[in-house]
């Protein structure tokens, strides 16, 4: 984690402290983050602050990013895999305004990646931090609304009832129908919501070299996965975890291994599938052009 | 044969708290020893306390004083001093009791009602069912009734189902409360045969038989009940009890 | 006819010693001691307010007694003081070796999950992870409690009261608990439905050799199910013994009143 100084900073807007939050709040959040990293998957309560945007727009992720970002960091923000969607653009601009940090769209150039609903296709490296925006941190809250009870279930690792929700899926649909926010067991101990990423991304959390941080602003919870941690998606022996797959490839870059979005192209039902990760797709398209170019030359 | 059942100094008085604490003495200081292979007939006028004594021997009623020594699992145990769970075990394996009336268990088929006691002792279901079928056949319960619950059977049929259930396990001690009361001659003879078989296996039998034919056929000796207490109050006592306490019919 | 085989007598499964619990000045239960052996069915009768439900809550680990001790013979650890167990240990015990059948099925079932899921939850809670096995075991139990297999994937809120109660029993017995607590298991059911439930319980409890503690105000229930009976009045046990002894030859004035108050059908 980068450390910040509380002296004069060179932000565009002199009216705010560096990265918007005051230094005491950032220290409080960093302490929660350290605790979260020490107990992988455990939900740490924290004093979530009012942010200048509504709940559901990433207030938890922004507070986590604000607490770990420093002047030398380079920030990438994605929403559904894209750098150019409303949520991504406004959060990126927010940090440009209050922290004056460099930004990038390249995964490998970023030191911090804040994300909503995706993990980039390009593998992360040691030293990188990925911050997830989380709407519902506790997977058990839908099963038992009493937090006094769900906290005990976590404390005593009573997770049979989570398995029950998967059982119900198979009984009703013949397979586990959950396609996003698919529950995982972290470090063989804590049940965790991976945030609403597609289950396609679940395997990327396993043994990831980067630090993975999760912030839920409205629910006031922070949790984390330290580098190289075991993250297992729940399943049954006879209904093992499986990822989504597509019969075709990306219409733009031809990738057969990335997560694809369906795009409607006209009013007569025409549609194509393209990578949801725009940075990955652009890279591949550039690479293809480059290859064609070099083929022409030789 | 050795003594299988030995009651010593048995006394029983009912105290009816709902009737202003009326005390009704039934019998006092009874001594009764029964050998294996022997059949003792309890004898005395109606209301003398024969049923009360028989129920006491099964620990269904709690005598106020005395001991009831029985052989159970190779040991001699005082039934009145035994823990409840011990009594349950003793009743499961060592003492059989055929009451006057069948306590019908809803929805359980006749065959299962009869086979149950053996199954409770750990017998295989199939072997128990075969043995139950054999007994029901001998007691002339038509096979078409076996799958029905005995609730709708006639008094005589229920009585025979009850006897079959009571004879299902080879208890070393068998208590019979008027087993032939509502039976015709042919069925009576079959019950006599079954009791004699039990005796020849060494079972100690104590019974109340109003029917002289049965008494003469199976009984080895009579045991007079009702002489040991005040004769004037005894019959009255029995009537009072069955009318007010709501206990099962004498 | 079958000669009776012999078997050794087992030690107590649960020993309750001097358990008391009051609510301020209000009496709950007072100085209750008894023990239950493996496979033994104990009935506790008394009218409303006699303390029988408080006692059941105390001995099933849902309510902390003011005084007294509870010793339970755990399968792998032997006798332990339940009140000295940590909360997770007690919860684990409750879902592996114990079962609780509530008077109101809504308290004991997950109404938004399917019948099969309700039965499968306990096996999953203790580590079952094979869907096919969990489901066939659940269906096996639905059959045992006479619920049509076509209802496996229906939610209990579409079931009748009697079916819900039977489902609750299946949900509890699926992991073969050694001790089941039942709080008025036939309360709120029609008489005909009660009879069916009682037969079923009687058969299952005897067949599986499960020990049970049944709290009820219905003497017919204990007559059919219980080996042994405790009669409670004003927080105390006033008479106890074999069920037929207590019901046929009651000694305490209150028990005599209770027995004589039952209408003979």
TrEMBL record, chain A:
Keywords of this entry: 4Fe-4S, Iron, Iron-sulfur, Lyase, Metal-binding, S-adenosyl-L-methionine
Pfam families in the record: PhnJ (PF06007)
Domain of life from the UniProt record: Bacteria
Catalytic reaction annotation: alpha-D-ribose 1-methylphosphonate 5-phosphate + AH2 + S-adenosyl-L-methionine = alpha-D-ribose 1,2-cyclic phosphate 5-phosphate + methane + 5'-deoxyadenosine + L-methionine + A + H(+)
KW Iron (keyword) present: yes
Main enzyme class: lyase
Enzyme Commission code: 4.7.1.1
GO molecular function, one term: lyase activity
Annotated function: Catalyzes the breakage of the C-P bond in alpha-D-ribose 1-methylphosphonate 5-phosphate (PRPn) forming alpha-D-ribose.
Family membership noted in the UniProt record: Belongs to the PhnJ family.
Protein name, as recorded: Alpha-D-ribose 1-methylphosphonate 5-phosphate C-P lyase
Organism: Bradyrhizobium iriomotense
Lineage: Bacteria, Pseudomonadati, Pseudomonadota, Alphaproteobacteria, Hyphomicrobiales
UniProtKB/TrEMBL annotation, chain C:
Pfam families: ABC_tran
InterPro entries on file: AAA+_ATPase, ABC_transporter-like_ATP-bd, ABC_transporter-like_CS, P-loop_NTPase, PhnK
Domain ABC transporter: start-end pairs: 14-259
PROSITE patterns assigned: ABC_TRANSPORTER_1, ABC_TRANSPORTER_2
SUPFAM superfamilies with a match to the protein in the record: P-loop containing nucleoside triphosphate hydrolases
Purpose: Involved in beta-(1-->2)glucan export. Transmembrane domains (TMD) form a pore in the inner membrane and the ATP-binding domain (NBD) is responsible for energy generation.
Family: Belongs to the ABC transporter superfamily.
PANTHER family to which the protein is assigned, alphabetical: PHOSPHONATES UTILIZATION ATP-BINDING PROTEIN PHNK-RELATED (PTHR42764)
GO MF term list: lyase activity
Name listed for the protein in its UniProt record: Phosphonate C-P lyase system protein PhnK
Record's keyword terms, sorted: ATP-binding, Lyase, Nucleotide-binding
Keyword Lyase carried by entry: yes
């Amino acid at each position: 984690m980068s450390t910040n100084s509380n002296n004069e900073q060179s932000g565009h807007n002199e009216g705010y402290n560096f990265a918007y939050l005051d230094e005491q709040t950032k220290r409080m959040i960093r302490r929660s983050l350290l605790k979260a990293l020490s107990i992988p998957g455990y939900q740490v309560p924290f004093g979530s602050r009012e942010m200048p945007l509504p709940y559901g727009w990433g207030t938890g992720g922004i507070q986590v990013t604000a607490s770990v970002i420093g002047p030398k960091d380079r920030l990438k923000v994605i929403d559904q895999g894209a750098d150019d969607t409303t949520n991504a653009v406004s959060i990126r601009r927010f940090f440009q305004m209050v922290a004056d940090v460099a930004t990038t769209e390249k995964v490998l150039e970023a030191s911090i990646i804040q994300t909503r609903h995706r993990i980039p296709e390009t593998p992360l490296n040691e030293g990188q931090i990925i911050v997830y925006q989380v709407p519902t941190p506790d997977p058990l809250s839908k099963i038992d609304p009493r937090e006094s009870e769900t906290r005990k279930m976590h404390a005593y690792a009573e997770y049979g009832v989570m398995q029950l929700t998967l059982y119900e899926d198979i009984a009703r649909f013949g397979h586990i129908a959950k396609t996003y926010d698919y529950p995982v067991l972290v470090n063989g101990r804590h049940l965790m919501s991976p945030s609403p990423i597609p289950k396609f991304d679940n395997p990327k959390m396993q043994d990831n070299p980067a630090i993975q941080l999760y912030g839920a602003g409205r629910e006031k919870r922070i949790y984390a996965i330290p580098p190289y941690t075991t993250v297992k998606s729940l399943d049954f022996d006879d209904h093992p975890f499986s990822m989504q797959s597509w019969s075709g490839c990306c219409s733009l870059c031809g990738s057969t291994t990335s997560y694809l979005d369906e795009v409607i192209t006209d009013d007569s039902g025409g549609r194509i599938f393209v990578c949801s990760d725009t940075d990955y797709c652009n890279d591949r398209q550039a690479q293809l052009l480059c290859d064609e170019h070099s083929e022409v030359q030789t | 044969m050795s003594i299988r059942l030995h009651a010593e100094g048995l006394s029983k008085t009912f105290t009816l708290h709902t009737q202003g604490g009326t005390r009704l003495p039934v019998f006092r200081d009874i001594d009764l020893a029964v050998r294996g292979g022997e059949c003792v007939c309890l004898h005395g006028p109606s209301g003398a306390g024969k049923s009360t004594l028989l129920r006491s021997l099964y620990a269904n009623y709690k005598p106020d004083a005395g001991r009831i020594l029985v052989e159970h699992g190779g040991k001699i145990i005082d039934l009145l001093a035994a823990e409840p769970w011990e009594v349950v075990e003793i009743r499961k394996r060592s003492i059989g009791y055929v009451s006057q009336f069948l306590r019908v268990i809803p929805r359980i088929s006749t065959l299962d009602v009869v086979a149950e006691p053996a199954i409770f002792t750990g017998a295989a279901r199939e072997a128990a069912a075969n043995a139950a079928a054999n007994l029901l056949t001998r007691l002339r319960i038509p096979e078409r009734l076996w799958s029905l619950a005995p609730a709708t059977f006639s008094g005589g049929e229920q009585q025979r189902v009850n006897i079959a259930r009571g004879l299902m396990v080879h208890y070393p001690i068998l208590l019979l409360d008027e087993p032939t009361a509502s039976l015709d001659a042919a069925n009576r003879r079959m019950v006599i045969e079954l009791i004699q078989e039990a005796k020849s296996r060494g079972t100690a039998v104590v019974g109340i038989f109003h029917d002289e034919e049965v008494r003469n056929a199976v009984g080895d000796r009579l045991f007079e009940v009702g002489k040991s207490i005040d004769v004037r109050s005894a019959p009255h006592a029995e009537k009072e009890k069955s009318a007010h306490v709501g206990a099962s019919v004498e | 006819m079958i000669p009776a085989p012999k078997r050794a007598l087992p030690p107590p499964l649960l020993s309750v010693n001097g358990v008391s619990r009051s609510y301020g000045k209000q009496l709950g239960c007072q100085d209750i001691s008894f023990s239950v052996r493996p496979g033994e069915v104990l009935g506790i009768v008394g009218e409303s307010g006699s303390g029988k439900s408080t006692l059941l809550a105390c001995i099933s680990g849902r309510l902390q007694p003011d005084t007294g001790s509870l010793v339970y013979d755990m399968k792998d650890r032997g006798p332990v003081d339940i009140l000295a167990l940590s909360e997770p240990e007690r919860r684990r015990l409750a879902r592996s070796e114990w079962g609780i059948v509530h008077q109101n099925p809504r308290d004991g079932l997950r109404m938004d999950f399917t019948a099969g899921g309700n039965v499968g939850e306990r096996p999953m809670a203790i580590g079952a992870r094979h869907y096919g096995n969990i489901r066939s075991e659940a269906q096996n139990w639905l059959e045992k409690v006479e619920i049509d297999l076509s209802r496996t994937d229906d939610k209990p809120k579409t079931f009748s009261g009697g079916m819900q109660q039977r489902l609750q029993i299946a949900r509890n017995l699926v992991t073969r608990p050694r001790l089941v607590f039942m709080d008025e298991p036939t309360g709120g059911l029609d008489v005909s439905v009660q009879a069916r439930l009682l037969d079923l319980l009687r058969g299952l409890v005897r067949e599986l050799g499960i020990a049970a503690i049944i709290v009820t105000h219905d003497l017919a229930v204990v007559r059919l199910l219980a080996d042994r009976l405790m009669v409670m009045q004003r927080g105390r046990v006033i008479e106890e013994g074999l069920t037929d002894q207590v019901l046929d030859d009651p000694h305490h004035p209150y028990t005599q009143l209770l027995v004589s108050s039952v209408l003979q059908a």
